[in-house]
Amino acid sequence: MNNNFSNNSYNNSNNKSFNNTNNRNRNNTRNNNKNNKKSNTSNNKSYIKTYNRSFNSSESNVNNYKKNNDSFKKSNVNNDPLASWKKKSNGDNDNNKRWERVGYISRESINTKSEDLRQPEIQKQFYKYILEEIDKIDLIQIKEHTLDPVLASLRKLREGIVSAGQINEFNIEVFELSSRMSLKAKNFEELWKSLSYLITTLYKNYEYRNNTTQNDNRAEYIKYYLLYLICRIPPVNVNKSLIGNPQEVLTIYNSLSSYLKNKKEMTFIYNLITLFNIAPINYFRFSELYKKTSDNDKIIMQCRLPRIRQQTLSVLTKAYFTLPTKDIQEWLIINDYDSLKNYLLENWKQLPNASNENYEERITEEQVTLRVPKKRK
Fold this sequence. Notes:
Elements: H1 2-68, H2 72-75, H3 83-86, H4 92-100, H5 120-135, H6 148-164, H7 169-185, H8 188-205, H9 218-232, H10 246-255, H11 258-261, H12 264-276, H13 283-291, H14 295-301, H15 305-319, E1 322-324, H16 325-332, H17 337-347, E2 367-369
Antiparallel strand pairs: 1-2
Helix pairs in contact: 5-6, 6-7, 7-8, 8-9, 9-12, 9-14
C-alpha cells in the first residue's frame, strides 16, 4: 500500500516536472520566435533603408550624369542588366538592335558579346538585315554620309567572311554589294578594300564555269578594279601616260581569259587603256567614250578629269583662236555655261605663256576666244 502510494507520488511528481519543463520550453520558443521576428523585421528594415539609400544615391548620380553628358545613353546602354528584357517588347526593333550591336572582328576584344560573324548562318541573317536597311534608302538622291551605316555593317560582315576564310557564291555576293554601295557613296577607301579581296581572292579561287546560268558578274567588277588602277591612282608621269598603275593594269588585263576579254566591259577597258597611254589624250574620243559609260564608271573616271581637262584646254588654246562654247563644254566635260566660265577663268592663267588679256570678255554663251592674235609691230 505504501509502496504503491510511493510510486504514484513519484510518477505524479515526475509528470508535473515534465509538464512544467515542456511549458517552459514552449514559452521559451514563443519568446524566441517573437525575438527572431523583431530581429528579422529590424534587420530587413535596416537592409531596405540601406539599399534604398544606395539605390537613390546611385540613381541621383546617374541622373546628374545624364544631364551633363549627352553620350550617356550610347556609352552605357549595355550596363543595364534588364536591358535585354526591356527590349523584348519592341518587336522588329529588338531584332534591329541586335544587329546594331554587332562589332568588328578586328576589335573582337571590345565586343565579346556580339554575334559571331564568322558563322555562315549568322552571316546570312546579318546580310538580310543589311538588305532591309538598303531598301529604306533612296539610292537615286543620296545625301552625304547617308550610306555610312550601311558601309559600316558591310565592313563588319566582310571582316567575318575574311576571318572565316570560306569561298562561295554568298561571300562573292556580299563583296559585290559592298563594292556597289561604296561606289554610290563615293567612298574609295571601302571600294578598294571590297574590290581587291573580291578580285584577287574570291574570283581567283572560285570555280567559274563559262557559258552557264551561273551568276557571273566578274566582268563588271574587274572593270571597276581596273578603272580604279587607271583613274584613281596618281600617274607616275603625266606627260607620257595618264594610267595610274600601268604595269598592274596590263598584268591583270593580259591574264584574263578570252571569255572575259570578249565582254563589253573589257572592250571598254581596252579602249580606255589605249587612250590614256598616249599623251596628250585624244579629248574628242575620250568625251565620246565618257558619254557612253554607266554612272558607276563615271564616278571612278571623274578622279582623272582634272588632268584630262588641263591637257585638253592646253591643246585647244594652242590649236584654235575661237571655238563654239558648246564644243568646249563637251570636250572639257562641263555641263553648264557658268561652270565652264568659272573653270576657264581659273585655269587660263595657269597655262604656259598666258597673258592677262580681258579673260571675262573672251567668254560668251555663243563662243570662246581661246587666244588673242598677237599684234604685229
